[in-house]
């Protein structure tokens, strides 16, 4: 009887061990989700892993890897840009072209750290892809099309076969998707402060290989929290018509003092959306029709009362509805003006 009991116990133990290792094996083989797209730069279809935060995968990699740390072998190739905050290099890691951002001066260390904090916190489809970091160095994915300022030159040359009003509206949708994400981010409501002109705004965003928009520079994205009731962008007076009215110094010839400046919130980003989208749409006759359709809605984005402006989420819905209308309209049909 005792031998029988021992046999049963051993059988149960062996079965438990078998189940454990089987589950471990299945866990190890768990499928990592992928996203597939058309790489317009190389003119081929690409599938890439969607990796959990803290890891990354570049096209062609067979698994996700942890963010690179100090000691990774990086070869500098050329200088992309220089600013007071950072110097940006085109570099090489293994067989991949990557971008290395290096702090320019210790006086801007906090800005540099803020950029890294935001990229790490928001890492995903709306932000530049983080590959690694070490002290005053940030390594990110290289996007061959460059920043959003380049889109028209690409669409007039290498991408001219893809140039149509639907693609241009998709750029508006992609841009507003990023703004909506920043306004509802897991690290609070964030405002794009480095956006004092159209050119400056567009330079903060990169074009992906399938011509989507991702935000690249996040060092000036303060949080609008309930206790402070608002933010002020920078320590200098703003003056041009691109910025929202509430961002302008309201006290005439009096010397600018940021401490006296009335606070504002994320609705400053909403004010700028029509100008950005109209730039993406371009000047074709089809684009003019879309601008006409959007005129009254864009006018609401320019309401001098920030509280009366629509949210980024509502703008996104409007753009997507217009996109669906374009898809449903036959190419030969005449678009009726509203």
Write the layout of secondary structure elements.
Layout: H1 2-28, E1 34-39, E2 44-49, E3 55-56, E4 65-66, E5 75-82, E6 86-93, E7 96-103, H2 109-122, E8 130-134, E9 137-141, H3 151-156, H4 165-183, E10 189-190, H5 198-203, E11 205-207, E12 213-215, E13 223-224, H6 267-281, H7 285-301, H8 312-328
Antiparallel strand pairs: 1-2, 3-4, 5-6, 6-7, 7-9, 8-9, 10-13, 11-12
Helix pairs in contact: 4-6, 4-8, 6-7
Can you describe what's shown?
By secondary structure, this protein is of the alpha+beta class. It contains eight helices and 13 strands. The chain has helices spanning 2-28, 109-122, 151-156, 165-183, 198-203, 267-281, 285-301, 312-328; strands at residues 34-39, 44-49, 55-56, 65-66, 75-82, 86-93, 96-103, 130-134, 137-141, 189-190, 205-207, 213-215, 223-224. The strands form five sheets. A five-stranded antiparallel sheet has the order 5-6-7-9-8, covered by helices on one side. A two-stranded antiparallel sheet has the order 1-2. A two-stranded antiparallel ribbon has the order 3-4. The longest helix has 27 residues, at 2-28. The radius of gyration is 25 Å and the shape is globular. 27% of the residues are buried. Mean pLDDT is 90; it is low at 332-338.
Overall body shape: globular
Count of helical stretches: 8
Quaternary status: single chain
The residue ranges in which pLDDT falls below 50 over 5 or more consecutive positions are 332-338
Main β-sheet: number of strands, strand sense, barrel status? 5 strands, antiparallel
Percent strand equals 15-25%
